[in-house]
Design a protein that fits this description.
Elements (H helix, E strand, L loop, with lengths): L12 H29 L7 H28 L12 H23 L8 H15 L3 H30 L4 H14 L4 H21 L3 H21 L4 H5 L3 H22 L8
Helix pairs in contact: 1-2, 2-5, 3-7, 3-8, 3-10, 5-6, 5-7, 5-8, 6-7, 7-8
């Protein structure tokens, strides 16, 4: 829309370069802060949980700012901004069960990926050890995974990549899938890739239909909150283990939930907002 208050930027290879350049600059700045603290004060701040949160924010913000100045302002004459408007309450009642259904489906699919053997076994153990080293503080986990990650990741993957692809003429369903696959790939391991890609498709669908980043952020936070609670209180990121049911029953429940609320959200009620 020509008169939209939101910039109609396009995402292509140059946009990808801008995001990567921003990530690189942010990472270099974090390295500088760690080196400076070590030399000036003799403190290894990399081990501090507050620095983990700060470094995540710096990397994401630097990528968003780089895309804004290199792509958005140069091509549209506007600064990067997004629609965060709330939708009607009925829409919330549709999308949260939709997301929960896909979370159950994603868990079943993820559970089919091997965690033992000469290749997957070592890789799975490596990533488990890596995640265990991050933090065991529930407050830090909530701040990082439930609040910060949904905000920054939805801005980049849905707000920048998916929207930019659609503005560049890519069909909506293709843009949703491409952004979701990239979202899955950046998680860096096959188990999170499967779940992140599937859940990314739901987040992308909701963003496409509502034109607001608020709902994808809330849904993303809901997913991460569930994961955080499962890890904190059951020591295993599994609904099936928490509910004491087989994975195949969880799959059936997930398919039923997702199918019903997908129909209500997309087909029956045809929820679709305009961005103005």
């Amino acid at each position: 829309m020509e008169n939209s208050r939101y910039p109609q930027f396009k995402f292509n290879w140059l946009g990808g370069v801008a995001l990567i350049a921003g990530l690189f600059v942010g990472s270099m700045f974090i390295s500088f802060l760690m080196t400076f603290a070590k030399i000036a004060f003799g403190v290894n701040i990399a081990l501090k949980e507050w620095f983990m949160m700060l470094s995540n924010a710096i990397v994401f913000v630097s990528a968003i700012v780089a895309f804004d100045f290199i792509i958005v302002r140069r091509t549209t004459g506007k600064r990067l901004n997004f629609n965060f408007s709330p939708t009607n309450f009925y829409t919330y009642l549709l999308v949260f069960p939709l997301m929960l259904g896909m979370m159950f489906i994603a868990e079943f699919i993820t559970a089919q990926i091997p965690t033992t053997g000469p290749v997957f076994g070592d890789l799975y153990e490596y990533f488990n050890d890596l995640m265990a080293q991050l933090t065991d503080d529930p407050i830090v986990m909530v701040l990082t995974a439930v609040i910060m990650a949904p905000i920054f990741e939805e801005i980049i993957f849905r707000g920048i990549i998916q929207k930019g692809l659609m503005n560049n003429g890519v069909k909506p369903w293709k843009a949703i899938v491409i952004a979701s696959i990239i979202f899955g790939l950046v998680h860096g391991n096959p188990w999170q890739f499967a779940g992140a890609t599937l859940l990314g498709c739901v987040l992308g669908l909701v963003y496409y239909k509502t034109k607001s980043l608020l709902l994808p952020m809330l849904l993303h936070g809901f997913n991460n909150l569930c994961s955080t609670l499962l890890v904190t209180y059951t020591k295993n990121e599994s609904f099936a283990d928490a509910f004491k049911i087989p994975e195949w029953i969880l799959l059936i429940i997930g398919i039923a939930l997702f199918s019903l609320f997908y129909y209500l959200f997309v087909k029956k009620n045809k929820v679709h907002y305009l961005e103005i």
